[in-house]
Amino acid sequence: MEKLNILNELADEIKTCPKCRLAETRTHAVPGEGSASARIMFVGEGPGENEDKTGRPFIGQAGKFLNGLLEKAGISRDDVFITNIVKCRPPANRVPLADEVEACSDYLMAQIAVIEPKFVIPLGGSSLKTLLGPDLKITQARCKVFRKSGILYIPLYHPAAALHRSALVETLQADILVLKEMLSRDIREDEITDLSAVVTKPKAKAASEPQDEKKDEKKKDDDKPADGTLSLF
Length: 233
Ligand code: SF4
What we know:
Blueprint: H1 3-15, H2 22-25, E1 33-34, E2 40-44, H3 49-54, H4 61-73, E3 80-84, H5 98-115, E4 119-122, H6 125-132, H7 138-141, E5 145-148, E6 151-153, H8 159-164, H9 167-183, E7 192-194, H10 212-219
Parallel strand pairs: 2-3, 2-4, 5-7
Antiparallel strand pairs: 1-3, 5-6
Helix pairs in contact: 1-5, 4-9
The structure holds iron/sulfur cluster (SF4).
Iron/sulfur cluster (SF4) binds near residues 17, 19, 100 and 104.
């Protein structure tokens, strides 16, 4: 079956998915969108208010900013797929709970397996920690290449972070150019930090408690936009 057909089937499944409590409060699930043969896959944490209303990812200010970054860097939208770790909006943009992330993780892994992007890009600290490990910090991990389970990851700041901290605009612009350069060539082994031995799959514990490491991020992220993902730094 063609990649696009498989992605469409996955999207149909996501749109009616009942696997976690976020199904009860969503307006629309947000499977993600972009090229079925994208070389870059951006992964935020979860849909925001506008995304929940429309079923489309990154359509608010953060998404527009990301589009501008890609355009300026000359990266085609055909080279990009955008999605989130959880496909349904957590109420009031709260941090997804560990069991919600666990329930939804198969969809993201299936999308990665179908698209086979050259790089998966965790956007922001929360996405980074969920995908690659709770001890990583976006300030140190940004723009570096990690490998886990055969997948190459290059974390970047969340675009919404630059909407809050103008100093990050130049950083993100520079990082996108680095990403573009890395797209155009083979990545050397000595550029890669291998995390294959690190277990990051969230434990399905304490369904009523956010993942501990995310609580602190949530505290400093009270002014996050309603249209973006949740933990920016
Ligand atoms: S967040 Fe994921 S697992 Fe939960 S209902 Fe939505 S699609 Fe299903």
